[in-house]
Amino acid sequence: MHIRRLATLLLTALVGAGVTMAVAIAVVGLDAVEDGVRQLFLGPVSPSESLPPAPPGSPLVITLTDAPRANYGPASPASEDALFLTLADAQGLEYDPSLGAAARELAIFYTDYRRLATSNALGFLLESSGAAYWGVRQSVVITNARGNEPIETLLAESTREGDVVGVGEDILPETPPLRVIVALTARRTLTLDPLPRAFEPGTAGYLTGRLAPGYTRPRAIAMSPAGTFVDLDTTLRGRQFSIEMPAQKGRWVVEILAEGPHGPVPLTQLTLYGGVSVPKIFETSWPPPLAEVTNGAEYVADLVNSARAETGLPALIYATELADVALAHSEDMRTGDFIGHRSPRTGLLSDRLRAARYSSVSRGENVALNGSLYDAHAGLMWSLGHRKNILSPQFTHLGVGARHGPRGWYLTEVFARPTPVIDDADEAAYGLLKQLRRARAESQGRGAVVRRDATLSRIARQAAGDALDTPEAIVSAVRQVGIRARTTVWTGQLATLEQFVPPTEVVDGEFTRFGVGIAQDLDADGPSIRVVLIAADG
Q: Can you give the pLDDT at residue 263?
């Protein structure tokens, strides 16, 4: 049988678990993969089934065959790349030796385990090879055919125009021997200048590079050795960017993000080692069998809360309103064949929540495409932006939507802290007045006067309801009722009443009469609570 015809026949039938295509946003924001993993068996012989399935949760230890690369950025071809580079060039593909190095390690991984690499294992191999990409697709061919045709077939079947590719090969000790050929493909979203993976503590440096066309507004976040998140200073001139890197000792993880066609997207994630050794060994665990998952959304929610429990965070409350929004977005991505936060049909997460009439103080979203929900979660936890959402103490509620399609699971996680609803605005205003009284007592002593004035309170209520929208208009209303004393007005838009801080000029001033008004608009795009404070002399 002609090998190309067989590859085409098997391409749609044998799709394995894929590396996560993940995107995250959280009132801050965050795309990544396409496809997943294609596992093609070329020729009449399939790999041995002699290896039993690994027990779920059992250790998976990966030891690099080659020494980890010293730098991120451009790489020189190794001798093993020569043939693959020539074949890729013949098909008009850009060949990246760093992807080639990772593909060689993956081929050995498959030879050892007869299984595809999990998302976090693939991430380790890519970083160890200095490959600065996001959304890398892994494709595996098993064949006993000789010559270049299996490689040419794999390149033709696993790539699209504009892809960057790397290829690696190993041998399965079967009878007859089988070739394991791995292709790693990705989109070039940026180009990095050479960056050492290890640095001397105290020597701050800069990560520099160039954005690919279609990507704008880069930013970077880092996770410190202590597990805290840090925003890194980022500058942009044209498409050239520069990021000030951390200088403290320990293991740092840095993720670069930008605005892409479907909203905020990660471009790459790098691990840097300050005064500590670059690892050659990676330890993780094997995922549970996919067949055990009966309710995808519930399963993912349990994984999220388990991860939070490991860090001492409270479990998120499952909200059906958020789950409905999440499921609708997963279905939208499946039918629209895209992965991202910005939908051509429903807009961004804030638009979807507004359409669902769900008001929130803070909100976030992770999206992913993967053949396995467990591996999708592992990939989200590997990525800083997604991990930050999952482990954020700002969120209290969660909704998950998982929709299966031809390319795998389309997953959406929606996080939120719902807006507290003010049932009694007058009672809430009285609470703020008591807070002001305490602040003035601390500033001026117990003799400080805070007297609620009925007229000022009425005007403050009207102003909070947007009947009066400027401080000048509020002062004018005070004058119209015959109050000529010195008057000051403070207005603020708050997400919660806990954010109210009595203004210094009112706390320290010689005012004696006060009025507080509160109004809430749950349909507001931003903070929903408007507070108006009027203070006047006696």
A: 87
C-alpha 458, offset from chain centre: 46
Q: Any bridge partners for residue 220, and if so which? A: 232, 256
pLDDT of 18 higher than 50 = no
Summarize pLDDT for 327-345 with one digit per residue, the tens. Answer: 999 999 999 988 899 999 9
Q: Which amino acid is at 366?
A: N
Q: What type of residue is 460? A: A
Nearest-CA neighbor of 323 among 420, 419, 416, 409? 416
**Rounded distance between C-alpha atoms, residue 216 and residue 259, angstroms:** 5
Return all residues near 387 (Cβ < 8 A) that are at least 6 apart: 223, 380, 381
Distance CA 483, CA 479 (A): 5
The 3-state DSSP class for residue 93 equals coil
pLDDT tens-place string over residues 419-470? 989 999 999 999 999 999 999 999 998 788 889 999 999 999 999 997 677 8
Cβ–Cβ < 8 Å for 263, 342: yes
CA distance 143 to 240: 44
Mean pLDDT of the chain: 86
Backbone angles phi, psi at 422, to 5 degrees: -85, 110
Going edge to edge, which strands form the sheet with 163-172? 15-16, 37-42, 137-143, 178-187, 163-172, 94-95
- Kindly give, in sequence order, each residue whose CB lies less than 8 Å from that of residue 518, ignoring residues fewer than 6 positions away: 422, 425, 428, 429, 432, 461, 464, 497, 529, 530, 531, 532
51 token code pair: 């290896």
Select from 178, 69, 54 the least CA-distant residue to 115: 54
The CA-based dihedral angle spanning residues 141, 145, 149, 150, taken in that order and rounded to the nearest 10 degrees: 0
Structural contact between residues 398 and 469, judged by C-beta atoms closer than 8 angstroms? no
Q: How far is CA 262 from the centre of its chain?
A: 14
With helix as H, strand as E and coil as C, how does 341-370 read? Answer: CCECCCECHHHHHHHCCCCEEEEEEEEEEE
Tokens coding 269: 């994630």
Angle between helices 149-158 and 82-90 (to 10 degrees): 60
Q: Using CA atoms, how far apart are residues 538 and 520, in angstroms rounded to an integer?
A: 30
Phi, psi of 154 (to 5 degrees): -60, -45
Report the length, in residues, of the chain.
538
Which of 120, 17, 19, 32 has the alpha carbon at shortest distance from 341? 32
Q: What is the pTM (predicted TM-score) of this model?
A: 0.78
Report the DSSP pairing between strands 397-405 and 317-318: parallel
Distance between CA 532 and CA 459 in Å, rounded?
A: 9
| 121 three-class SS | helix
Rg (CA), the chain: 29
Q: How far is residue 515's CA from residue 452's CA, in Å, rounded to a whole number?
A: 6
pLDDT, average across residues 409-417: 95
Cα–Cα distance for residue pair 455/453, rounded to 1 Å: 6
Taking alpha carbons only, the member of 379, 359, 362 closest to residue 370 is 379
